[in-house]
Design brief:
Layout: H1 44-47, H2 50-74
Length: 81
Amino acid sequence: MKNVETNILPEEIPRKWYNIIPDLPEKLPPPKDPEEGESRLKLLPKIQPNCWVLRLRKAQSLLAKMRTWFCSMTTIQPTRQ
């Protein structure tokens, strides 16, 4: 894999960022691997910053705990009066 370097002038550096996701005409499809060749999804942890991977894992863990808590709350039987 080649190293690619891009140089831009200081005045070309973006000063503001814009999140286009809410303005897309339809939701983005989930990532998928090509039909042939190596899995690109397995490479994500290697090419994404580690903080993104850790943040995703923490969010998934929190969602799992919340799901467990919510399911346990819905199975509580009402008390007789």
